[in-house]
Amino acid sequence: MSSIYHDILLDHYKNPRNFGNLKNANKKTTISNPVCGDKINMMIRLKGGKIKDIKFSGQGCVISTASTSLLTEYIKNKPLTTFCKKVVRDKKTSYMVTLDKDFILELLNIHIGPVRLKCALLPLEALKKLLK
C-alpha cells in the first residue's frame, strides 16, 4: 500500500468525517459485523430527494471506519439519483443503491483481502438498508 493512501485511511480513522449523532434524522439503522465486532449506526436526513445530512457512530477497525467516513463524504449533499435507482411499487417509492463493492474498493484505493472485505463493505450495507 502506498504511504499516501495509508495516511489518508489513518486520517479518516482518527478523524472520521460525519461522525456523531444526527438530530431530526429521517432514517436510522444499525448494522454490525459479528465476526470482528464492528458496529455502525447510520442516520440520514432526506429532503427534496437529496441527502441533506448524514452521520454515523459506533466502533470499528481502521478499514470500516475509514470506509464509512469516505462513503458519507461522497454521498452527503448529493441527489439520491446520483447513486440510487428510484423504485416505485404499490405507489410506494424506495431507492436501490447502485454503488457496489468495486466502488468502495476504489474509494479506499487499497487492496482488501477476503477477511477484511466485510469491514470495508459494512457502510454500504448500512446505506442500502437505510434507503430500502
Jot down its keywords.
Sufe protein. Chain: A, single chain, 4 helices, 132 residues, 30% strand, alpha+beta
Can you give a write-up of this model?
There is one protein chain. The protein is an alpha+beta fold and 132 residues long. It has one domain: Sufe protein. Chain: A (Alpha-Beta Complex), CATH 3.90.1010. Helices cover 39% and strands 30% of the residues. The strands form two sheets. Strands 1-2-3 form a three-stranded antiparallel sheet, with helices on one face. A hairpin with a 4-residue loop joins β1 (27-33) and β2 (38-47). The longest helix has 18 residues, at 114-131. The chain is globular, with a radius of gyration of 15 Å. The model has no long low-confidence stretch (mean pLDDT 93).
Topology:
Elements: H1 3-14, E1 27-33, E2 38-47, E3 50-59, H2 62-75, E4 84-89, E5 92-97, H3 101-108, H4 114-131
Q: What is the share of helical residues? A: 25-40%
CATH topology: Sufe protein. Chain: A
What CATH architecture label applies? Alpha-Beta Complex
- Summed over residues and divided by their number, the pLDDT gives a mean of 93
The secondary-structure element order is HEEEHEEHH
Q: CATH class, anyone?
A: Alpha Beta
Discrete helix count: 4
| Main β sheet profile | 3 strands, antiparallel
Rg over alpha carbons: 15 Å
Q: Structural class given helices, strands, pairing?
A: alpha+beta
Poorly predicted tracts of residues: none
Q: Which overall shape is indicated by the principal axes computed on the Cα atoms?
A: globular
Task: Give the CA-CA distance, first to last residue.
Answer: 35 Å
Estimate what percentage of residues fall within beta strands: 25-35%
